[in-house]
Amino acid sequence: MRFSADHLARMLLGSGARSGPLHRRLSEGLRELIDLGEIPPDALLPSERALAVALAVSRTTVVAAYQTLHHEGKLVRRQGSGTRVSSSGRPAQRETVSASALRGDHAGAQFLNGPVPTLVPTLDFSTAALPCLRLVPEVAATLTMSEYAELGTSYHGYQPRGLPALRESIAATYTRGGVPTTPDQILVTSGAQQALELITHGCLQPGDSVVAEAPTYRGALEAFSLANCRIRSVPCDDNGMDVDRLDELVRERLPRLIYVQSTVQNPTGAVLAYGRRCRLARLAERRQVVVVDDTALAGTLIEGSPPIPLAGLTKTERLLTIGSMSKLFWGGLRLGWIRGAPEVISRLARMKGITDLGTSLVSQLIAVHLLDRVEEAQAIRRQELAGGLADLTALLSEYLPDWTWRTPRGGASLWVRIPTDSVTNFAHVALRFGVAILPGTAFSPGGVADDHTRLPYAVPRSALVAGVQRLARAWEVYAEGHRDVPVVAVTT
């Protein structure tokens, strides 16, 4: 197995120490990835020169790190054969799933092992998770002992389809929004990510073709990669997915599945325009293709009225809608759902039953009461996100005037273009100044968009100010072409 310099650079953003000499930090990061199995035995590492460019360090730094691990027996170096991870007496791992989707560079990587040890307080701008809405503990605290007791006595605890009361509440929410829905059209899942995984495994086989926006939600790209699907991309602009280009791709070769985020796209914050929605709905009716409409961010709309859902424009059974409580209320609830035809929902429910027998009933009971206050929650989120967006764009205009962006209509992050051909390189310099960012390649099929990054604004203003100021200092150093910049003491 061969690791490219850019791929390894992305993996190293979340590994190793963040203090001390750069060669030691690099060797510790590589050692950690090797010990965890993220870089398997016999894997071929990139050349010293290529990795130095990707990490924005000198070649001497990479040589020293490789040499340290060679002396420890972690790496094997042979003239003309490159640098490989030592097998250490272990057989090379047989790849049973897509390595590119599992080896360190994935959406859950930053949550798995906790914070990286560091003497410099690092601001994490690599995630766009929203803070818990205050309504969640308020509502949870109002539930009575009798409600919990009834939950325990009425159900054995295993409900793969979901708590009946929650399915009724979700269905009623769709119906009020102009999309008549019955509870048998709803499957409750452990978050929108599980919903996407169930659809992927239920609808796709290895080698199937999938069309997605570029950029798009990285968790979707990883799910499709794990299923060994071929991913083709369609541009996404201010009006959402380019449906004209989508139609061209479909005519060229019919995909098995189309993945779209029609209402608040991640990471751009775009909303699919009405005309495009109608054309996509007609395409779904004409073609034998599954359309997955991921609306996990729909509750974070900042401007404008909620658009007509795709499900309200077509009755095709090949349309599946994903929803979530995570962005509007709190990710810790771990609640999402799939809306679809009853027969499809039944098949997916059987798959879910095999996977986990059902989602937490306690969380679902809280969610039933939260959905009674969904309009209040949306108003709170709208105010918070609008303020954060205004703060971030003002700070970027002041400190980084050559960075550009398109104003999002919703969501918790800004899709920013940086005047460089490698944000992957710049991210390592930014990390030395105490702020972690992700390159745009993480959100794009084929690893393009390395001139973009996603910056969150659903964070305290003090963190936004400090983060942008640190990025400005890092950018000044990077733009001047400096390498081997040590960890910088930060005061903001």
From TrEMBL:
CDD domains: AAT_like, WHTH_GntR. Residues 20-88 form the HTH gntR-type domain. Residues 80-96 have a biased composition (Polar residues). Pfam families: Aminotran_1_2, GntR. PROSITE patterns: HTH_GNTR. Keywords: DNA-binding, Pyridoxal phosphate, Transcription, Transcription regulation. One of its GO terms (molecular function) is DNA binding. The keyword Disulfide bond does not apply. Residues 77-96 are annotated as: Disordered. Signal peptide: none annotated. In the C-terminal section; belongs to the class-I pyridoxal-phosphate-dependent aminotransferase family. This is DNA-binding transcriptional MocR family regulator. It comes from Actinopolymorpha pittospori.
